[in-house]
Design goal:
CATH architecture of the largest domain: 2-Layer Sandwich
Number of domains: 3
Number of strands: 13
Bound molecules: zinc ion
Number of helices: 13
CATH superfamily of the largest domain: ATPase, nucleotide binding domain
Structural class: alpha/beta
Largest sheet: 5 strands, mixed
Radius of gyration: 25 Å
Order of helices and strands: HEHHEEEEEHEHEHEEEHHHHEHHEH
CATH class of the largest domain: Alpha Beta
Strand content: 15-25%
Length: 389
Amino acid sequence: MAGSSQWPRLTARDRLLHVLGTEGALSRSDLVRRTGLSRSTITTLVAQLLTEQVLVERQDRGTPLNGRGGRPPILLELAEPAGVVLGLDLGHRHIRAGLARLDGTMLAERLLALDVDASPAASLDRVAGLVEALLDESGHDRADVRAVGMGIPGPVDRTGTMTSGILPRWRGTRPGEALTARTGLVARVDNDAHMGARGELAYGAARGRRDVIYVKTSTGIGCGIIIDGKLVGGATGIAGELGHVQVDEHGIICRCGSRGCLETEVSGPKLVELLQPAYDEPLTIPRVIALAEDGDAGANRALGDVGRRIGRVLADMCNLLNPELVVTGGAIGASPAFLAGVRDAIDRHAQPTAAAAVEVAPGALGEDAELRGAISVALEVGAPPAIPR
Ligand SMILES: [Zn+2]
């Protein structure tokens, strides 16, 4: 059956790797049968792949020795790619760090509550401490780390410099270099919401989708735009700064230097501030979400309003970019009342055909999206090319 017509576009090498990748360990004779390649081609290719350490040999222990004392066949299998990747997610109020294998499986994860906005140096000291702890815990050392992805809660340009006043104390800093100075590890750095978009694209709600807007609503409002399967960074890393779209020309001054930004009008803390006077208990974002789930009218009303305000800006983005999916992440993103508000505003304000084309769905990774995105970036940088399957 295994003739060359079954493999129209694969090279002999890819064909062999494909068979081993899908069927597991095989002998040289099995490979001849399964790939349709000649015995001499298999012999040459296998020798080359063993030298490159892409393949390893092992004895087939499952085959009993026959009565005449024949040796069990030697099997060939793909070598386990060595090493790990590291993902770091710095939010406004936390640091998350995770270590993953080269197939993306998480090995260890740590979370630390910290006011990241206050001091770049202190935050990066803590990051370095977390990295050491993670490596110790998982029995790895720095030499095993193939690549690092790091998310920061502010815009980062292509040179790794923090470009905007959105995170004032970090402006002009180069967090990647600061991490290298502390740990010896080289990181690819990007904005946290961009990492969240990448996380949902690689592992979550946006898997297999091409044109997606990811919106993260927590302490602030972040956004990552994916066009044709690729994240849009923009000239200076600002692309997707939904939270700093002006919604009130006469509004209050924002930390970014503009006034009446969406984020100054609606965000997690604003939501709590709005509701607090009507409640006897001290409110937090998770408490507001829980109240809404229990049917509390005020909490549902306020979450719906937040969804509508953000959805109003998303409606314009739907006209400009015509996405197929809006993924809502962050602490508030999964709230049904919030999602209904977003949907309502898009249906009301976007072009009917753009509104009809777009699905609005909660993120699948929750608060892990940014960390998973950082891992996916590290894997792009540090993992060997995928074997065709
Ligand atoms: Zn602003």
